[in-house]
Amino acid sequence: MPTTTNKDYYATLGVKKTATPEEIRKAFRKAARRYHPDVNPGDKKAEEKFKEISEANDILSDEKKRKVYDQLGFYSDQIDPAQAEAYARQQSAGGGGRSQVDFDGFDFSGFGGPGHQASQQTGAGWGSFKDIFSGIFSGAQHPQQPHGPQPGTDLEYQATVDFWTAIRGGQARLMVNRQETCPTCHGQAHTGGVMQCPECNGTGQVTQMGGRMKFNIPCPRCNGTGRASNMCATCHGEGTVTRSESVEFRIKPGTRDGQRIRLQGKGNAGINGGPAGDLFLIVRTGMHPVFTRVGDDIQLTVPVTVAEASLGAKVDVPTIDGRAQLKIPPGTQNGQKLRLRERGVENAQRPEQRGDQIVTIEVVVPHLQDERSREIMRELAKLNNQDPRVALFEKL
Ligand SMILES: [Zn+2]
Ligand SMILES: [Zn+2]
């Protein structure tokens, strides 16, 4: 509702142009008591008058707004005091009157326009005024902007990949719920052409009751444009629908647990032609009953006999590439770790580089079943009468 009518707010409140803020406050309170709709139920004239004095108070009680008004003879949120002064100077220099200032394009909506706060000056006893106003204007303060293209959001999923796929690489699949562009409205959120808004019958305005007062406010359905479209029934006006999708992705050889894989454009669909977000997969690598993977190394426990451990031996051990021969040095102790160089996992970043296989030796003590074996063992103990606990007592 553009209006360029200049109003004399000072006359409305019955104060001089030189009135102090205190004088303005008093004048408003006096007038408000007289014209408040609660005191004048059903009185249209009083209601109009009350609107006028509230508007006048809104402008004159605000130092910045009053300054703009004093310079130009009207107030708009889009003009700041400095601008107003510049305009006024320009006009007086050119000899033109204020009425010739060209403010085309500015919204001079008065009382009902956005940005006109409820009068805070009404004081404690007038709380009901404030309640009425804040209720009415809260909707109009932040007019909804028409939706431009918006990028889709990113998605993050954990993807469990089996032990061997993580080591050797390959393809993996994961079910992902993602927002896709609505197939019915192609992301437009509405179907059919633009029509007259059914809420306001194309006027762009609806009447809202505030207590016993009626106010015209911009239509919330069409944001005051008077035009609306049918909301898409498939996506309920979202422009996107949620779909379960099986996403296939490539796993590089040597992919580690916790590694992130980014699938560009596989996140949620954008709105109004905006680009889709990305899908981030956090890889969880599976376990193996024999091999334990630590980074690019493979850990494995290998049992050996007392004879193998004490005399030394060459034993076959499993590796991720199959069997390999491990040399057990003479005198190998239980728990000792032996390294098979470059028998671990290929590095995902530097494929020419491989981890090691680390073998933990587990000496298996034999259960001697026959007298001859026990005889030999006793003999052996006599020949090697070392006390393995000597060191223990020395440290006491
Ligand atoms: Zn409407
Ligand atoms: Zn749709």
Question: What are the main properties of this structure?
Answer:
396 residues; alpha+beta; four-stranded mixed beta sheet; three-stranded mixed beta sheet; 15 strands; 26% strand; binds zinc ion
Taken as a percent bin, the fraction of beta residues is 25-35%
Low-confidence stretches: 94-145
Output the number of helix runs.
10
Strand order of the largest sheet: 10-11-15-14
Sheet having the most strands:
4 strands, mixed
Strand tally? 15
> How far do the termini sit from each other?
97 Å
Rg over CA atoms, rounded to whole Å, is: 42 Å
Helix/strand structural class = alpha+beta
What does this molecule look like?
With 396 residues, this protein is α+β, with helices and mostly antiparallel strands. It contains 10 helices and 15 strands. The strands form 6 sheets. A 4-stranded mixed β-sheet has the order 10-11-15-14. It has a 3-stranded mixed β-sheet with strand order 1-9-8. The longest helix has 17 residues, at 44-60. The protein starts with 8 loop residues before the first helix and ends with a helix. Mean pLDDT is 82; it is low at 94-145.
Summarize the SSE layout with pairings.
Layout: H1 9-13, H2 21-35, H3 44-60, H4 63-72, H5 81-94, H6 127-141, E1 155-161, H7 163-168, E2 170-181, E3 190-196, E4 205-210, E5 213-218, E6 227-231, E7 240-251, E8 260-263, E9 279-285, E10 292-294, E11 297-305, H8 306-311, E12 313-319, E13 322-328, E14 337-340, E15 357-364, H9 371-383, H10 390-394
Parallel strand pairs: 1-9, 11-15
Antiparallel strand pairs: 2-7, 3-6, 4-5, 8-9, 10-11, 12-13, 14-15
Bound molecules: zinc ion (2 copies).
